[in-house]
């Protein structure tokens, strides 16, 4: 039976989803960005975004997103590497991913209890003689909690890239006289770079728009683009400025995706690079 005449029909659900849940929301954000508080058409929102206030806010957002991504990658890559060497690697990977299934708000409140003045962390510090420390509402607590939340999403693509890496390539490197560091630098890391790029995408992009963790963990001492959007929409009710920030956030995300995207460099079953 020939299903070719029906093939265009398969695109309809996908096209409708893209239209109503991707294109339409972005179009509305762009539309509202050209209106002020009084509902008048204006370019003032875009002019305001290029002032020093929003410039510093953008730099701060990129800085914290960079820190979160850097520390996530720093811990995720060796973790993913050692997972591929374990006997029950899929089980260990599942145990790492399971916490990501828990509601983000619940995990955030759990850290408030852990890092609070009367939490178990401060109780341990008091036992060691260091005394209670103000761990919450600091840059450290914000980055630490964000890394904990995002690190499973960094581990997963890196693990998949490492798991698909042919052992024959590594053996060939050792046979040619390369040491462990050279093998990692010249063979393992380049061939798993696509996994690293995917991990950077799924961590850096959401980290740019964090707002709930900044409020609950950092106590609004850390302001990101996501926090600014929330304040514009819910506090000042300036939908135009909030939409303008969202437009630039979408633009930044698109640029990051372009920068971190690359051609697929995989391995075949016989150990050849394709």
Automatic annotation (TrEMBL):
The keyword Transport applies. Residues 58-260 form the ABC transmembrane type-1 domain. Keywords: Cell membrane, Membrane, Transmembrane, Transmembrane helix, Transport. It is found in: Cell membrane. It is a multi-pass membrane protein. SUPFAM superfamilies: MetI-like (SSF161098). The chain crosses the membrane at residues 12-34, 62-84, 91-115, 135-159, 199-218, 238-259. One of its GO terms (cellular component) is plasma membrane. One of its GO terms (biological process) is transmembrane transport. Belongs to the binding-protein-dependent transport system permease family. CysTW subfamily. PANTHER family: INNER MEMBRANE ABC TRANSPORTER PERMEASE PROTEIN YDCU-RELATED (PTHR42929:SF1), INNER MEMBRANE ABC TRANSPORTER PERMEASE PROTEIN YDCU-RELATED-RELATED (PTHR42929). This is Spermidine/putrescine transport system permease protein PotB. The gene is potB.
């Amino acid at each position: 039976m020939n299903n070719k005449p029906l093939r265009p029909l398969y695109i309809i659900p996908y096209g409708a989803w893209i239209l109503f849940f991707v294109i339409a929301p972005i179009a509305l954000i762009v539309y509202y960005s050209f209106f002020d508080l009084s509902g008048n058409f204006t370019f003032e929102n875009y002019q305001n975004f290029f002032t020093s206030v929003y410039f510093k806010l953008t730099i701060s957002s990129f800085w914290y997103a960079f820190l979160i991504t850097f520390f996530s990658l720093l811990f995720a890559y060796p973790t993913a590497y050692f997972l591929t060497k374990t006997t029950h690697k899929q089980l260990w990977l599942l145990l790492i991913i399971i916490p990501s299934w828990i509601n983000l708000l619940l995990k955030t409140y759990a850290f408030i209890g852990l890092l609070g003045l009367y939490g178990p962390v401060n109780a341990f510090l008091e036992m060691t003689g260091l005394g209670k420390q103000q761990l919450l509402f600091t840059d450290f607590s914000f980055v630490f909690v964000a890394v904990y939340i995002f690190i499973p999403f960094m581990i997963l693509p890196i693990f998949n890239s490492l798991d698909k890496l042919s052992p024959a390539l590594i053996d060939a490197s050792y046979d040619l006289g390369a040491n462990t560091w050279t093998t990692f630098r010249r063979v393992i890391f380049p061939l798993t770079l696509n996994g690293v790029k995917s991990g950077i995408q799924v961590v850096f992009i959401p980290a740019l728009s964090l707002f709930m963790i900044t409020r609950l963990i950092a106590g609004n001492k850390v302001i990101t683009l996501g926090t600014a959007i929330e304040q514009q929409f819910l506090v000042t009710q300036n939908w135009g400025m909030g939409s303008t920030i969202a437009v630039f956030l979408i633009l930044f995300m698109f640029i990051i995706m372009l920068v971190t995207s690359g051609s697929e460099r995989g391995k075949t079953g016989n150990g050849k690079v394709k």
